[in-house]
Design brief:
The chain contains two helices and eleven strands; from the N terminus they run βαβββββββαβββ. It is an alpha+beta fold and 156 residues long.
Length: 156
């Protein structure tokens, strides 16, 4: 098959540094790459390493994003992009409106992840519920109002 994985979704924000700080702090992500502009566009993720494996090099003249010598490693990453446009606010868009409506983060233990996020000041949109495909999920919003989910899949 020509296609192998989803590489990255993108969130456009007028408060880029606020979201970088929040995703790195509350969600434990790290900046994997930046375009170096002010304000920047960045790639965030959980797996940054030097060389090896199926990593995609991001240095050199053809790379739109680069932290010299680093590569974005395996796994989906999140792109945060700066925009001056502030309307409509993500929380003002119906959860059932057409288009991409949430980003889900897989966790090994939903209760532990919820406790960690609550300690960081996150409020959940409701109680945990059954996840399509098995497991449990819970929804919440980032500081800009984008809907996020935690998903714990069944281990069986």
């Amino acid at each position: 098959m020509m296609f192998s994985a989803i590489d990255h979704p993108a969130i456009f924000t007028s408060q880029i540094q606020r979201l970088i700080d929040w995703y790195c702090g509350a969600m434990g992500m790290q900046v994997l790459a930046s375009n170096g502009k002010t304000p920047p566009n960045v790639l965030l993720g959980y797996d940054r390493e030097m060389g090896g494996g199926q990593d995609v090099p991001l240095t050199g003249a053809t790379a739109p994003y680069a932290i010299e010598g680093w590569r974005v490693a395996r796994g989906t990453v999140l792109e945060l992009c700066y925009t001056k446009d502030t309307q409509p606010a993500p929380a003002d868009v119906s959860q059932l409106a057409p288009g991409l409506r949430h980003l889900a983060f897989r966790v090994a233990n939903l209760d532990t992840a919820c406790a960690q996020l609550q300690a960081a000041g996150v409020s959940f949109l409701g109680p945990a519920s059954s996840a399509l495909g098995g497991g449990r999920l819970i929804s919440f919003r980032d500081p800009e109002g984008n809907e996020l989910q935690l998903v714990e899949r069944d281990r069986s």
